[in-house]
Amino acid sequence: MRVRPFRMRSFPRLLMTFCLLVGAGQLTSGQSNVPAQAARPILPQEGIFLVFPFENAGASPRLDWIGEGLEELAIQRLSAAGQQVYSLAGRLNEMDRYGLPSSAKLSRAAMLHIAQELDADYIVFGNFNSDGKNLTVNGRVLRVSPPALLPTVNENGPLSSLMELHTRLVWRLLGTCGQSYPLSLAEFSKLQRPLSLAAFEQYIRGLLTNDDESRLRDLKEAARLEPDWPEPAFAIGKVYFQRNDCGAALPWFAKVPPTHPRSVEARFAAGVCRLRLGQPDKAEAVFAGLQEDLHRNLVTGADLPEILNNLAIARARQNHLPPALADLGRASDIDPDEGDYPFNLGLLALQQKDMATAATHFAEAVQREPDNSEDLAFLIYALDKLGKKADAAAQREAAEEAFGEKGLPLLKIDSKNGDSLAGYERVKRELDLTSLRLELEGPQMQQSPAAEAAAPRDDAVAHIRRGRQEFRAGRLDAAEKEFRAAFVTEPNNASAHLELAEICRRRGKLDDAVQELQLSLGARDSAAARTTLARIYLEQKKVDLARTEVEKAIKLAPNYPEAKQLLDHLGKSKPTGGTK
After folding, report:
1. DSSP class per residue in 310-338
2. I need a labelling partner for 423 at 20 to 30 A (CA). Which of 85, 130, 330, 488 fits?
3. Helix, coil or strand: residue 445
4. 499: left (phi > 0), else alpha (psi -120 to 50), else beta?
5. Centroid of chain to Cα 448
6. Phi, psi angle pair for 126, to nearest 5°
7. How far is residue 274's CA from residue 241's CA, in Å, rounded to a whole number?
8. More confident residue, 196 or 109
C-alpha cells in the first residue's frame, strides 16, 4: 500500500504577520502615512499573539461584522506596535485543520489548544454589544504558559468612535501582559494608522462576503475612501488573481508598498501573473528580487522553494538552463516531500534531450506523489524514449492498477518544439511564508521586562522557532541541534519531540521517529501527532497500529480533515495484524 508522504504538520502552511520589511530592511507598521525614520524607537515585544473574533453578545446580527473587524483591527494594532501576531489566515488555517468553521464559538480550552499547537504566547479574545449607536467592548488576554486568564479590559463609547476605542483597548490589554507596558497611550497611538470607520467597515464586509462581485464592490469602496491604505488594494488584487485575471490584478498589487507586511505575497503573485502573461523576463526580475531581498534582510531559512521554483521556470523559458537547474535543485532539497520540483527538473532534462536524467527525476516525483498520474505518464514517456520497454511496460501495468485502464493522461509533446513542454510546467501559485516567522534582528525591538522574566520558556520556544527555520532551509543537522537545545529548559517539550520525529523520518529512521512521537504524546496529546504516528506505522506496514492511532486522533478532534482522510484510506485496507 502506497500513501502520499506526510508533511511537517500543517505548521508550514500558516502565515504570520511579523511586520517584516522585506525589501526595506526596517520595521514598519505597514502604513503609508507613517514616515520612515532612520532610527526608529525601540518597540517592546511581549511575545506571539493569537487573536480570535470578538463574540457578538446580543447586538443585532447586522453588526456581526464588528466581531471580525475587532479581530482584524487587533492584529493590525499589535503589528503596528511591533508585536508578533498571527494573521487572520493563520488562525483560519489552523481551525480548518480541525474541521472547525471560521465562525465557530470556541471554548477557552479549545482556544488554548490551538494556541499551543501554534506556539503562541498570548490569546486575545472578547465580546461586544451595541445598540447601533453605542458600543461596549470587553477584551481579555489568556496567557498560554503557564495558563492564566488575565484581567478583563472594558471600553465603551459611541459606535462612531470604534477606531479610537479599540486603540485604547489594545493598549490596555498589552498592559495586562506584564508588570508595566512602557509605551504611553499617546506613544502607542502614534504607531497606528489613522483610518476612517466607514472605510474599515467596507473592508471587513468585503472580506466576509462569499460573492466575488460583492467583495470587489465593498473592497473598492474601502480603497476609494482610503486610497493610501494598502490592505484593500492587496485584497482586490487577490480576488482578480484567483480569477486568473492578471491584467486586472497587477495594478492593485502595485499599490502595496515594499515596506508593507503583505509586500512579499503581492510581489510573488505579480511574478506569477508575469509568467501567465508570457513575460518571463519580468517574472525573473520579480522572483530574483524577492530572493535577493530575503537573503539581505532576513535571518536563517530565507530560501523559499516556491520562489526558487518559479524563478527557475522564468529562466528556463528564456533558455537560461544552468541557473534554472540550480534553482530547482535547491527547491527540491528544501522540500523533499514536494513532487512538483523533481517533476519540473524532469521537464528541463527533456528540454535538453537528456532522457536518462529525465527518467530519474520523474521516478523521484512518482515516489514523492504516488497518486499523481501525470508524473507516471512522463516517467513512462522517458523510459520509452530510452528504449527501456520492459520498465515502461511494468509502469503501465502499475498505472492501470492504480488509475484504471485509461487513467493516464495523454501527453502532447512535440519533440522538435521545446515550447510544447511549457504547458506542463508547474508554477507555484501560493507562497508558504513559514520561513518568515522570524525574530527580528537589530535595534527595532526588545523584550519587555515581563518577557525577560519568562526567559526559560522563551529560550525553549526560540530554539524551536530557529529549528523550524533551519528545517525549512533543508539544514537538518542544525535543526536537530536547535530542537535538542530546547530540552535544556523544557525536558518534555512536546513540540521539540514532534519536530525531531520529522527529522528522523526524513532520514529514514522510522523507529526513532515513532519514539519521538510517543514522547511528544506523553507530554501533550495531539490529533496531529497521532495522525503523524499513524502515517509512520503505515510506512512500516503496521496497518492495525496505524488504524488505532488515527481512531484516537478522530476521538480527540472529530473534524480533523487529515485524520478523517487517513481513516477513510485505512477503511479500504485489509487488516494485516502488523502490531510489532
Report:
1. HHHHHHHHTT-HHHHHHHHHHHHHH-TT-
2. 330
3. strand
4. alpha
5. 27
6. 170, -165
7. 12
8. 196
Handedness of CA 181, 140, 90, 68 (dihedral sign): negative
What are the C-alpha distances in Å from 24 to residues 28, 235, 263, 406?
A: 9, 22, 10, 53
Q: Is the dihedral of CA 459, 462, 463, 464 positive or negative?
A: positive
Rg (CA), the chain: 25
C-alpha of 407 from chain center: 33
How many CB atoms sit inside 10 A of residue 71's CB? 20
Encode pLDDT of 4-40 as tens digits: 444 433 333 333 333 332 333 333 333 333 333 334 4
- Give dist(CA 227, CA 199) in Å, integer: 10
Taking the CA atoms of 204, 205, 210 and 213 in sequence, report the sign of the dihedral they define: negative
The pLDDT tens digits for 120-166 are 889 999 999 998 899 999 999 999 888 899 999 999 999 999 999 99
All domains of the chain in start order, with CATH: 40-192 (3.40.50.10610), 455-571 (1.25.40.10)
Residue owning grid cell 518534555:
492
Q: How far is CA 534 from the centre of its chain?
A: 24
Nearest to 56 by CA among 115, 136, 134: 136
Regarding predicted confidence, which is higher, 3 or 365? 365
Q: Which amino acid is at 496?
A: A
**What's the average model confidence in pLDDT over 541-545?**
91
Find where cell 508558504 sits. Answer: 432
Whole-prediction pTM value?
0.77
Judge whether 177 and 143 are in contact, CB under 8 Å.
yes
Q: Is residue 499 a contact partner of residue 464, using CB atoms and an 8 Å limit?
A: yes
Q: Pairing state of beta strands 48-51 and 55-56?
A: unpaired
Can you give 562-575 as a three-state secondary structure string?
HHHHHHHHHHCCCC
Q: Which of 90, 59, 88, 91 is nearest to 203 (CA)?
A: 88
Handedness of CA 333, 336, 339, 343 (dihedral sign): positive
